[in-house]
Amino acid sequence: MSYQVIARRCRPEIFEDVIGQPHATRTLQNAIRLGRIAHAYLFSGARGVGKTSVARIVAKALNCEKGPTPSPCNHCSNCREISHTNSVDVIEIDGASNRGIDSIRELRETARYKPAKGRYKVYIIDEVHQLSTDAFNALLKILEEPPAHVVFIFATTEPHKIPATVLSRCQRFDFRRLSLQLIVEHLKKIVSQEGANFSESILYAIAREADGSMRDAQSLLEQLLAFSGDDLAESEILDILGVIDRQSVMRTAEAILSGDARACLDLASDVYRRGLDSRRFCQHLCDHFRNLLFVALSEGTEARIDLPRDENELLRQLAAKTTAESLHVYFQMLLRGEEDIRRSSMPKIVLEMLLLRMSRLPKIESIDLLLDRLLTIEQSLKSGRFASDCILSESRPAFGTREGAPKTEDRGESKPIAPASGSAADSGQPIAAPDAPLPSAGAASSRDPAFPGPGASPPSASQAVANWPMFVSFLQDHNPILWAKVSHSTVRVSGESIELEVPDIFENSANGPEFISKLEEASQAFFGARLQWTITKRQAASPRGPGAKAGKAGKTSGAKQVAAHPAVQQAIEILGAELIEVKSSGGDPEQRRRK
């Protein structure tokens, strides 16, 4: 006898051999046992899940010499003929090839005759949704009132294309996709029977590629058995099969979460070089981030993740590096990216751009976590502790920032002012900006005498100026708009008050009781006392050359012109904003005009 492929050789012969469809097999067995046999059945479901196999088992159960029985013997002549598809009483029809009305008329004529050997004449019509509308209409009468010896069994992957008049005349069974674990366990049995030895990761890769279809998994295993004699490595075997290995998916996810754009591009190029489908790779990534999201959301969700134990552990380690909110955004980006890849004529470039966008996405903090931090700050204020201890000692990045991202001072903007010695502060000299990074306010507050504890006397102006850099760092989170103005200003001691010299661009917004009130509130939150403030305008630097004065005056007048522009004033009024800084677009206007 010629060689039979695994998909045919391992086809189930009895109801107990059917995998993953207990709701259908148990109901059919009970119906046969009780004699409640319907005249028409409809089996719907994905490809390769057992629809045609169950239809043949039903035909054997009805025509077995020991039956009708829910357990056909598979030894009598009727059972053997049905198994080999050469029974005269079981007619299998391809709906795609016999979709016209003439084929249905012929079926109606032959259905009148009694079976030759068995009890029932069984018509199995595969892909019945391919029949034309006229063919369905011609089938209706005999389908509703067939002869007592006729049973119709329809199989389809698209039941929504079948007319409602036909559906209402059938008992419908929806066959389910097989789970990953069921496919892997069945593949292990087949591999053991074939005398081969494959790792569990390869079998999982095959089962994942089969997408719930046992026949697809068996066909891939057939290819794998043909390659096994060449002693190939696991990655080479998966490449030959065109199956996406799990390691590539996990390395891509790690590169995305760590923000490694170069690694993402290298992995996208590797996928293209190996000839793998970019859309399929995106689907695997989408499934991977779905699993990560389930792990990150709560405990006990591993039951929804059909993966090996070691891979579950890797998922937990990877999910600990990010938040559920970020994973949800990644998942949504992959869903849209998969659709873009499907529509694009350049899928490789679309995949590369998708991975780049995901790798540059800032980390998103949980709303619950931010609310907890705000509650901690509120409780600390009520108990007399400093809010700076709660904010600045927090090791997590601020909302919407990626860990390790450069802060404001790393981007070339103005740095907070360094603390001066006591003599410098008392002399009224301005304090210069530091080059070294600032210590955390939480660490300084526990040992610096300028920070009074609960019940201690409020700090003096000299002590406050000495700890000015930490106050500026505190303002960056406490009041970003106030911080933007203060960080560009110069501070000195003026008697019992603190004199703040602001740039001329903030002349209007910093000249008023509201600005001083905000400074007093911030000093109350940080120092524990509402310090006195004096606001002055920074004087323009003395010119060093003939053109210096004109250049400085030009910049100052340019900033005032921008602030006084009607469009800017209208934007500030509509948005309720404040003008923080005016930056030049670069280069001299006259030079740009000449270019």
What is the architecture of the largest domain at the second tier of CATH?
A: 3-Layer(aba) Sandwich
The CATH homologous superfamily of the largest domain is called P-loop containing nucleotide triphosphate hydrolases
What's the tally of helices?
A: 28
Strand order of the largest sheet: 2-3-4-1-5
Q: Give the rounded overall mean pLDDT.
A: 77
Structurally, the number of domains stands at 5
Query: Biggest β-sheet, characterized?
Result: 5 strands, parallel
Broad shape = elongated
Content-based structural category: alpha/beta
How far the N terminus sits from the C terminus, by CA atoms, comes to: 86 Å
Could you tell me the strand content as a percent range?
5-15%
Point out poorly predicted stretches: 386-451, 541-555, 587-595
CATH T-level topology of the largest domain: Rossmann fold
The beta-strand count equals 8
CA-based gyration radius: 38 Å
Explain how this protein is built.
By secondary structure, this protein is of the alpha/beta class. It has 5 domains: 6-174, 3-Layer(aba) Sandwich (Rossmann fold), CATH 3.40.50; 180-241, Helicase, Ruva Protein, domain 3 (Orthogonal Bundle); 246-359, Zinc Finger, Delta Prime, domain 3 (Up-down Bundle); 369-402 and 414-537, GMP Synthetase, Chain A, domain 3, CATH 3.30.300; 552-594, no CATH class. It contains 28 helices and 8 strands. It has helices at 6-9, 22-34, 51-63, 77-83, 101-110, 133-144, 164-167, 180-194, 200-210, 214-227, 234-241, 246-258, 261-273, 278-297, 309-319, 324-343, 347-359, 367-383, 387-391, 422-427, 441-445, 461-466, 468-478, 480-486, 513-527, 548-564, 566-575, 589-594, and strands at residues 40-44, 90-94, 121-126, 150-156, 171-174, 490-494, 497-502, 533-537. The strands form 2 sheets. The protein has a 5-stranded parallel beta sheet with strand order 2-3-4-1-5, covered by helices on one side. The longest helix has 20 residues, at 278-297. The protein starts with 5 loop residues before the first helix and ends with a helix. The model is unreliable at 386-451, 541-555 and 587-595 (pLDDT under 50).
